[in-house]
Amino acid sequence: MSFWGTGEILLSGNNKNKRQTGARYEKLAAEYLESRGLFILERNYRCRQGEIDLIAREGEFLAFVEVKYRQGKEKGTSLEAVDKRKQRRICRAARYYLACSVGDMDIPCRFDVVGIDGKEEKISWIKNAFDFCL
Question: What is the DSSP track for 12-62?
Fold first, then answer.
């Protein structure tokens, strides 16, 4: 990152491209979930505890969704990219969201992962991909 005296932080090309790529696949995942009956409540929810790509409602459930894209399998599949460390960050952010935005810690919720792989953009959706953890 570089800082110019204008009060703006400019992203380097690599970070900007990663954000653009992430935004593209998060949009694709949101459209996929909406086509399957979920209602998207939040996109890119951020707080001090972490970030949640998508927050959606399906019936009585609140779904906290992590979206991962992998162009190739050199680093594993997209679904394998959501490790325990990432799961803990998502859970902390979800707890904060429930406390501050919903005001109800007893609402039924789950943690889903949408994986998008390869140039053909094969989408895989795992409901209840992992349990709440801190």
Answer: PHHHHHHHHHHHHHHHHHHHHHHHTT-EEEEEEEEETTEEEEEEEEETTEE
Identify the H or E element spanning 70: strand 61-70
| Residue 67 CB neighbours (<10 A) | 26
Residue type at 45?
Answer: Y
Q: Which residue has the tokens 């927050």?
A: 55
Provide the CB-side half-sphere exposure for 77 (13 A, CA).
Answer: 12
**What tokens appear for 6 in the block?**
């204008």
Q: What is the pLDDT of residues 29-83, one digit of tens each?
A: 999 999 999 999 999 999 999 999 999 999 999 999 999 988 877 777 788 889 9
Q: Nearest CA to 62 among 85, 39, 79?
A: 39
Cα torsion through 97, 58, 86, 72, rounded to 10: -140
